[in-house]
Amino acid sequence: MTHLRKMMLEDLQRRNYAQNTTRYYIRAVEDFARYFNCPPDRLGPRHIREYQAMLFHKRKLSAGSVTVYLAALRFFYCKTLRRAWSATDTPYPKKDHRLPQILSKQEVERLINAASTAFHRTLLMTLYATGARNAEVTRLKFLDFDKQRMVVHIQGAKGRKDRDVMFSSKLLEELREHWRRLRRSPKIWLFPGRNNHCGDQPIDTKTVWHACSHLLEAGADLRTIQLLLGHNDLKETVKYLHLSERHLHAASSPLDSLSLKGQSPHEK
């Protein structure tokens, strides 16, 4: 696998695939090889069909997850091995189209008010106010917030597309308090990593999940927390975020309608 892995990695990098996509694709091909205990260049369409069926019936993966595995295998066989790929023999699975579940204002209020620290509270408020994904919110910079237009510029979002989204005056006040609470005045990152003494690196995505684990301990259910993060159920709303400034200001931020505690919790 070492030589084949190196070849595939170089092919992905030459085509400027995103870091996460590269990692997922490499892992998918490695998993495929381990399943059959055989180098992937010795496997063919029959093995791919069997593997696809296994992902559905044994691992119980969703159609979207299985599609990622198939896309990785297709890249490996078509780009790295230069082999033909038959869409008829190995079709992508049909996805389920379901309406997203929406949190009530009361649910979101309970979630944000249950934050164990001021840092976590600001994280959750930013997630809700901007609609940013987990990885996006961790890499927000202070310069991304345009206070005159009241929009935040999210760079390198899913699909490597930038987008502007509105944010509220309530979030702006929270971010000002957040800046004052930080031990060192941050120069770049909105949420600088605490273990990094120079503050030149952002927090890890695990920090957001850690904040949500405290919500779980406070009584929030997993479904509600997942909806707040919005990684899957709300992904179809991204297309509505590519709006003009006029349209962005036509609607108020959902954060402004919440009845939150006036005082942020003290940092622990």
Q: Strand order across the biggest sheet? A: 1-2-3
What's the multimeric state? single chain
Q: What share of residues is helical?
A: 40-55%
Name given to the CATH homologous superfamily of the largest domain: Intergrase catalytic core
Mean pLDDT: 79
Apparent shape: elongated
What are the low-pLDDT stretches, counting only 5+ consecutive residues below 50? 230-248
Number of strands: 3
Q: Would you mind describing this structure in some detail?
A:
The protein folds into 2 domains: 2-80, DNA polymerase, domain 1 (Orthogonal Bundle); 105-257, Orthogonal Bundle (hpI Integrase, Chain A). It is 48% helix and 4% strand. The chain has helices at residues 2-14, 19-36, 45-57, 63-80, 105-113, 118-130, 134-138, 169-181, 205-217, 222-229, 245-250, and strands spanning 145-146, 151-154, 163-166. A hairpin with an 8-residue loop joins strand 2 (151-154) and strand 3. Helix 1 (2-14) crosses helix 4, helix 3 runs antiparallel to helix 4 (63-80) and helix 6 (118-130) packs antiparallel against helix 8.
Indicate the topology.
Blueprint: H1 2-14, H2 19-36, H3 45-57, H4 63-80, H5 105-113, H6 118-130, H7 134-138, E1 145-146, E2 151-154, E3 163-166, H8 169-181, H9 205-217, H10 222-229, H11 245-250
Antiparallel strand pairs: 1-2, 2-3
Helix pairs in contact: 1-4, 2-4, 3-4, 5-6, 6-8
Name its key features.
268 residues; 3 strands; hpI Integrase, Chain A; DNA polymerase, domain 1; three-stranded antiparallel beta sheet; elongated; 2 domains; 4% strand; mainly alpha
Describe the structure concisely for a colleague.
The chain is mostly helical. It has eleven helices and three strands.
